[in-house]
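S1.2 Input.
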Amino acid sequence: MASNNSNDDLYPMWTKTNVVTKKNVKVTTYVKGEYKYNFVSTEDSFLDIAWRKLDLMQCINILSSGETSFRGHEYVIFSALCAWVIDPKSNTTIRKNSITLAVARLLSGAEKRAIRERRRTKSEDYGLVTALSPSFYNEIYFPIGGLQRIISTPSRTGLVKKRAPFLRHHNIACTMMGIDHYHRDNLSNTKGFGSASIRKSSELVQSIHEKLGESAPDAKNVENKHYRIVLDSLPFSYAAKSIILDDGRTLFDAMFERDLHVRDFSAVCLQWFKRTLYVANHVLNREADAKTATRLNSREAEAKQAEFIVNCLAGHKPEVFGPPEYILNNGTDIKDIYKHGGLAARKRRS
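S1.3 Output.
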């Protein structure tokens, strides 16, 4: 006996009902019966803003729009952004692997919810994975390669190994940034301390890491073998080290661990962007400070990257924060080296 229900009755289609442009994004609403979701997008597709390359401004616009996109959308973009922060130069492997593993995690979570729903309703059949919208599949899952991409991607443990060298680069570069932050806050407008100096800061980086009992970099290698490698994203990683998550980790720690799991990452992103803007404006971009202008004239890369990040974060208000505690604990040494010269001069005096 034929059913009286058509396929459209059993499986109603999603219908686009509204399109609104606001805050540099487009919000498209889809409805199916009593269900609806939004697709928050920018000018280009996911492939073009996160997969093939990282378009910093468009990713930030989506993550800070204040609008909720379809399930998993912001999380995957957040994963892509964190991967770019780790390796900001030209290596797409870490970013693509991070995106793929984020997609796999979302699919696994949807399957688990479907299984729990089957048990709750005591159904004989497993439900389809419907917690993820058509836009998830059309915008992200199928364009990146679907199941074939997932099964050919290294494990999370393998991803951690790929990230490992960058952990040292960022830790060393963030110490350098912390010293410059301290100088900016306490010495830049004080007579007798001189301008911020890559050479002096590099010597301090070596000294500070030795005091921490860590493998200390040679001062001569700090700039070219660590600082320059991650300079493009350094304001983001430095700000991330200052943000404490609910579980006690820093946002920076979460980026480098096996599973990038951050609760309420929308709120975390807003604070992260505000603090990154502060770093770019206050620490990295010193053109307004006559005492450090000479340094910036010879370090054009810093000025250009600071300006680029400030433009990407336009509309955000900077959130002030201080240097990390381990930098403050070395305040006497920072003052001394900037007042009296490098470590060699200090040794001669002693």
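S1.4 Remarks. The longest strand covers residues 15-22.
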